[in-house]
Amino acid sequence: MNDKVDKLVIFLAKRDGIDKLVKTFQYVSKLVHWHVETTHPDVAQRFKQWEVASGLSRKAFRSGRFLTGFNALRRSPGPTPTFQLLAILANAGEMVYFFFDHFLWLSRIGFLDSKLARKMSFISAFGESFGYVFFIVSDLIVMREGLEAERKLLGSKESSKHAHESIKKIRADRVMRLMAIAANVADLTIAVADIEPNPFCNHGVTLGISGLVSAWAGWYRNWPS
Fold it and tell me: Which residues cross the membrane (predicted)?
């Protein structure tokens, strides 16, 4: 029990940990609002206010976050030219997303002209979508290479402790990348709802489930080992 409490404290001490918790509040509120909107309008309005407040809080938490993409490129652009290109495109999209998200937040709280909100939302969501596509492609390529490496290790006649450890690491990495892909696909769905509104992506259930998938996949990835 104490170990779980310690891990929760460590998780919530991280900016990403707080973000995933508040994101859970945001999208649970969205689902509840959709569910009771017609039957209990007063309750629905309260959950709508919680959803909006959570969304604005997350934008405040992400102040300066666009620098993480630049730092990722500076520290580890990729082992091959292909991965370097994918990393540049993915992180460039993410930097655009987080940078213009600042202006979206300022326009929604009334500090900047509220008319800017729609334009900032579109640019931010477009950069987000652009980056997610290349993050997903990168993870799929690494997973394919991991599967090939695992098959070679399983097919080899040698059965050593090193081989078992390598397979264990490959499988653990695959799980983390599957979580990343799930989160990125979910967030891509949410971004598309901003770029090109449509009945499917903009539906309360679609957005709510997508937000929770993203939050909980991120929760899993950031949980202390």
Answer: 83-100, 120-142
